[in-house]
UniProtKB/TrEMBL annotation, chains A, B:
Name this polypeptide is given: Thiamine-monophosphate kinase
GO BP annotations listed: thiamine biosynthetic process; thiamine diphosphate biosynthetic process
Role noted for this protein: Catalyzes the ATP-dependent phosphorylation of thiamine-monophosphate (TMP) to form thiamine-pyrophosphate (TPP), the active form of vitamin B1.
Organism of this sequence: Bosea spartocytisi
EC number: 2.7.4.16
Entry's family note: Belongs to the thiamine-monophosphate kinase family.
UniProt domain PurM-like C-terminal: residue ranges: 154-309
Biological classification of the source: Bacteria, Pseudomonadati, Pseudomonadota, Alphaproteobacteria, Hyphomicrobiales
Length: 331, 331
């Protein structure tokens, strides 16, 4: 129950969430919202829950929490080749929530919703005796039968990743309360870049159409490249040969690895990349790279799909060390 | 993180949730599910979050918790005139979850999903330091432009409710830990009926088509008849004249009110009915009643819509007492 200093459920929705609603949200005044996929389109549906203390720090900037809650869902839609159409939010507010917190949260959420053209169409607001808990279900449109699957990778396909890998996991160390020694070796700009990559992941929405046209399989990298690649290979029942030296790293990530070479494993296995892992047939991958480049998103080939379900052969400098941690898990 | 005695996230999904998945869930092996509305149909989207200790007792039977989490969403779809098509579930499991709990939860959830023809198409499983938290987003299909709104009630329309009112709120008292004196005046069958109405609400899915054809406005009653009627009147910018003596009560509810006449207010204002409140024009309401009767669902006229935004005039025995509590709030 809200106390006298705070708005009730309906004022709260009217003040902070109704401004994020699209036409399908019906002003958040009804029991339901509407999705109207165009003729010949299907609706891609994805859902992610985030819990304070598990997926983010409870005292993270509320605008960053709002941004990230939607970003991780938009990242899934992008990987599936889908254009964002809308989302619903359920939010369980802890006892000590404040109106200022909620206002900033809604502002961060709304900023990405507007940027991505993905309005709020419904949701629910409840209270909890536990930590802040968010659940977003996001909707995207794809031409019927064209959703990009995890299971489509074929032997001979080229394996590619978008952007740079490892920034999110390194950024978590930079941003978190216990900063390792190597953080001091970075300059302010490098620290800021990595922390921002953790706090404000940029969903690769602009890649959706290129993936839908040229990719044989795709997923977003949320639990680390190594672990998510293993999931894709398992779903596709194929193996891969990956050149770790080809995995793209940002300048700040390279600086961190120079300070502590053991961080390479964190970059390859840590979570929170929100980049795209995809495969494309030999005859398609250069078109895919070119289409991505039109949106200023680099796509880098890092290996090949081979036969042999689930088997990965890593080459390159870090290959000998193995991966002690495997996939990152938020569970 | 799961300990050694419990399945990990992927085993858990494979063992307990994949069996609930429909074709659009893609075996819960991808990052997203698919909705394929038929040509000329729109997707109605509704979401409800439930928190242990707020919406249900933490030690309620897990199968009942699973049933209810889906039921409250299907109730919204029914009120909107939509046929259930699928749902996504995000679940935040508390530290002390057990495999047995989860198995029973999934069984209760799956029983209603199967009965309603509403398969699981995706979701997310995370851990929390707080109470069990569930969020379900459910999808239904309506012919384009035919979703039944809250805002469609017009002066002269007849106001109707489905089933019987107040059983859920009375059932909460019967089921809860602090049993009031009147509970002892009921027999076992009456107590069982009311508790079951609280634990296993029956969404009025079979009413959807009749509402979509004949109703001018509808919503489900989740926060009490009096409070939810006020919301409908506000959205429709109309008033109503309601005969409280006409509000349908079940036999066990009548027995409770005989034992303690003051319970009438609880019946009219308490939550957890999951019945349908609707309006229909003079020329349509008998067709609506007849269509509902084909599915063995009684619809009872309880009053009329009048002009005058938000004004309700209650008549009947309880009308003089006023409503001290107004709408029930889970927030």
């Amino acid at each position: 129950m809200a106390d006298n200093q705070r708005p009730g459920e309906f004022e709260l929705i009217e003040r902070y969430f109704a401004p994020l609603a699209g036409p399908g949200g019906l002003g958040l005044l009804d029991d339901a919202g509407l999705l109207r996929p165009g003729r010949g389109y299907e609706v891609v549906v994805t859902a992610d829950a985030l819990v304070a203390g598990v997926h983010f720090f409870p005292d993270d900037p509320p605008a960053a929490i709002g941004w990230k809650a939607l970003a991780v869902n938009l990242s899934d839609l992008a990987a599936k080749g889908a254009k964002p159409e809308g989302f619903v939010l359920t939010i369980a507010l802890p006892r000590n929530w404040t109106e200022g917190w909620l206002k900033d949260f809604a502002a961060g959420l709304g900023r990405l919703a507007q940027q991505a053209g993905c309005p709020l169409i419904g949701g629910d607001t409840v209270s909890t005796s536990g930590p802040l808990t968010l659940s977003i279900t996001a909707f995207g449109a794809v031409p019927a039968g064209r959703m990009v699957r995890r299971a489509g990778a074929k032997p001979g396909d080229v394996v590619l990743v978008s952007g740079s890998i490892g920034d999110g996991a390194l950024g978590l160390k930079v941003h978190g309360p216990d900063k390792p020694g190597w953080v001091a070796a970075l300059d302010d700009g490098q620290r800021g870049f990595l922390a921002d990559r953790y706090l404000h992941p940029q969903p690769r929405t602009t890649l959706a159409e290129a993936l839908q046209r040229h990719a044989s399989a795709a997923m977003d990298i949320s639990d680390g490249l190594v672990g998510d690649l293993a999931k894709m290979l398992k779903a596709s029942r194929v193996g891969a040969e990956i050149d770790l030296d080809a995995v793209p790293l940002s300048g700040p990530a390279r600086a961190a690895l120079m300070a502590d070479p053991a961080l390479a494993e964190l970059a390859w296995t840590g979570g929170d990349d929100y980049e795209i892992l995809c495969t494309a047939p030999e005859g398609e991958y250069s078109s895919l790279i070119a289409a991505a480049a039109e949106h200023a998103v680099p796509l880098t080939p890092i290996g090949r799909i081979v036969s042999g379900a689930g088997a990965v052969r890593y080459s390159g400098k870090g290959a000998a060390q193995g991966f002690a941690h495997g996939s990152f898990s938020h569970f």
